[in-house]
Amino acid sequence: MMKKSMKKNAFVLIIATLLAIVFLLPLIFMLFTSFKALSEAMSSSALLPKEWTLENYGSIFGIAADVPVIRWLLNTGIVTIAGTVLVVFVDVLAAYALARLNLPGKKFFFTMVVAALTIPGIVTLFPMFYIFRELNLINTFAPLILIYSANTMGVFLVYSFLKGFPKDLEEAAVIDGASLWQILRFVIFPAIRPVVATLAVLTFLTIYNDFLWPSVVTSADEMKTVTVGVANLVQGANFVNPGRMMAATVVATLPALIIFVAANRYFVRSVISSGIK
Amino acid sequence: MRISKTWSFILFLPFLICFVLFLVVPFAYGLYISFHQWSIFGGNGGFVGFDNYVSILTPGNVYSNAFYNGLKNTLIFVAISVIPLVVISLALALVIDSIPDKLKVFYRTIFFISYAVSVTAVSAIFKWLFTGNGGYVNNVMNTFGLGALNWLNDQPLAWIAILIATVWWTIGFNMILFINALDEVDRNLYEAASLDGANWWQRFSNITFPSIKGVFVFLTIITVIASFNLYGQTLLITAGGPSQSTTSLIMVIQQIVFNQNNLGMASAMSMLMGLVMVLIVAAQYLYTLRKD
Question: How far is B81 from chain A (nearest CA, A)?
Fold first, then answer.
């Protein structure tokens, strides 16, 4: 019996490992191609470079660089951090009021949040673009940050988590005469840390990787996020040098990958799925 | 609890303001614009009633041709992508679920990693994999004497390339939700079933699937929505080609805003697209309710 299950485990591990290697091939291709010179990258059928070169990275970071990847990364950093802080702040407070407090019109607001989940993004996107354009805010950080704050999914996520979490501690804190701020700071926030972390990482990645909206509200090269900037390299006449493009893609993707892997443990069971039930 | 109504409302207020400003207002404004002749540069050119909608829905003019072509392509993509996106992620989740616990997190992270990659990076990678001249897949096929294929300029190859890129990019999220659901299946049921001599398929169809059915339905619905929003992959990998056969509905709407400067028409199209999506999701939802 014991032997049989070990055999089965080994079999599953071999399958999973093979699948994992196949799955990682596009990323491996990206990484290795970024170290290939133009002629080799265009003709080679081997993943590993025959001759390793840093010229692709040099052409991105060097003085003669015509691709402001660093500036794009900086923009992405500003936009994602500000946007994530805003979303977490707004959503946690709203979810707490909905789930726990004596909010007037609670039923109406809750229905509103759920109903809004069904509105497809395309319906609001171009009117919003027009409004920001009329306000002369195209090519500023405002549209890049603010619009993510109407994130009903986040409210719903935190709300579901709070609903499954016992009230005893809060009630004890109220009896002890704790203020609203103290309850939030010392009782609620520590308790919901896993769902806040999940919301923060999901929001961060959503904003980091968003494409349509930031490409609509930025036309100046120096205001682009890295996701929009890299898109320019893929299109039209820029699509010439695989090594150079992969180097730009590595630089654009690495920060998100690092944050993802570091925060991966927060995608704990039941947190994401608690929103579904 | 003794926290006053006023304070409760104050906590809710920041979200309410954002919700109104960035969802309610643009939605209402978009609806308003869709009944007008409206350009980005010229603004409101007057009320036209349902004219925009009529142009889009009456076959034969530029707008309806673009709309129906975009809708057709988007529906093709929904039809070919939803089953692989749900089934492959479920299969992966089943493999990972049977891995010993200590290694589970490692494999889970690997298959979820593409979630952190943007659509532009995905497109950059897959365009260089599949492009006809100098693309890696063709280089490999030449090495094996198979001959190159014109992946991005022939159908159905272009759809296949888009589909592979999309599957790679998005199965991780579905997989994670399936793994979470599989984790919650009552293990005692499996033991009872193996004592009864049930085989793998019997266990899957009688125990596993019924237990995760809710998540399965949910994921099918959100995958339909996600596939409907096809944009980045076709814009960047195939540029809507060959001959407009991968031009998605969102690409059409975007062209009408920026190339034709017709926000009124684009808003009407967005409303119609939203309506189609809501109807499809509602139909799916009602269908599963009725079956139960």
Answer: 18
| Class of CATH domain B59-291 | mainly alpha
Q: How far is A104 from chain B (nearest CA, A)?
A: 6
Domains and CATH numbers, chain A: 2-61 (no CATH), 69-274 (1.10.3720.10)
Closest CA to B73 of B222, B251, B282: B251
Measured between beta carbons, the chain A residues lying within 8 angstroms of B8 are 97, 101-104
Residues of chain A with pLDDT under 70: 1-4, 62-66, 266-277
Alpha carbon distance A228, A221 (integer Å): 9
Residue whose C-alpha is closest to residue A156's, from A206, A207, A112: A112
**d(CA A256, nearest CA chain B) in Å:** 6
The reply to whether residue B134 touches residue A180, judged by beta carbons under 8 angstroms, is no
**pLDDT digits 0-9 by tens, A218-247:** 999 899 999 999 888 888 777 788 888 899
**Are residues B100 and A180, on separate chains, in Cβ contact within 8 Å?**
no
- Please judge whether A127 and B125 are an interchain contact, meaning their C-beta atoms are less than 8 angstroms apart: no
Contacts of B196 (CB under 8 A, 6+ apart): none
This prediction has a pTM of 0.90
Reported ipTM: the value is 0.89
Query: What are the sequence ranges of the domains in chain B?
Result: 59-291
CA dihedral sign, ordered A39, A40, A41, A42: positive
Which residues of chain B lie closer than 8 angstroms to A172, CB-CB?
Answer: none
pLDDT tens figures, B199-237 = 888 888 888 888 888 889 889 988 999 999 999 999 999
